[in-house]
Amino acid sequence: MIPAGTTLAAARRLLADRLAAAGIDDAGAEARHLLKLATGRDAALAGMAAETCLDAGEAACASGLAARRLAREPLARIAGQGAFHGLDFALNRACLVPRDDTEALVDAALRLLPPGERAEILDLGVGPGTVLLTLLTERPQARGLGVDLSPEALEAARTNARALGLDDRATFAEGRWTEGLAGAFDLIVSNPPYIPARDCDALAPEVALHDPRLALDGGVDGLDAYRAIFSGVGRVLKPGGHVALEIGIGQAPDVTAIACACGFRLRRLASDLAGIPRALVFRQDGAAG
Questions:
Q1: How much is the pTM?
Q2: Is 125 annotated as a binding residue?
Q3: 241 has binding-site annotation
Q4: Methyltransferase domain: from which residue to which, for each copy (predicted)?
């Protein structure tokens, strides 16, 4: 795809054209990132740097990475890491790529954690640690436990905790939601699978073909995880504690109904950057405030 001897600037133009023709948004920026992965050099640099030529190894590497992106593998998976809330998270095949939508959940959770106060956080379906480790970064007095059914996802979470210097405040355990958990938590968070099973294959190729189905498939109606979560969180939630959950488009009424049936009441609804309701905060009935 990219011949050896092609200049960095020309390679960027070539890759951007190929990506744009394939319908990939922000093709110029993605081409720049792919070339940086392949060569270690930034194709956006001006002058002589942009006119340096790719050697045979660099050209072959860039062509291989481009082929993966043209097959709709997300850039974050190709790079092996994704950015969220100003932090970088190592990813593997068992991890959901971090998404901006989840900022609504993090923002809602941070409102419940006064700066400087100690708190115990439980993250159900922790994945690579995106939510839990972001919260611990923002709240240095907090500690957290992340639970996931996937050992491979937990491996990424532990790697990220070490990289962020949080391994002394973050622990991880393999498990299904709250099953077998002991202890009491001030805040329970989760970004669970919420896509109805029938819709998973119709998602964008970057998601349908490359994100783990375990992190996407919410059962027939997309609500299985919420039923499981609310059936057990009351046992491990401190009196007056909160549950904060990400939801899919249009799911707020159904998730609220599930929560209410389990003795919880809605305290707050938060929207994502597009104005779509994306996170719900609950408290047990009878709790003050």
A1: 0.92
A2: yes
A3: no
A4: 120-245
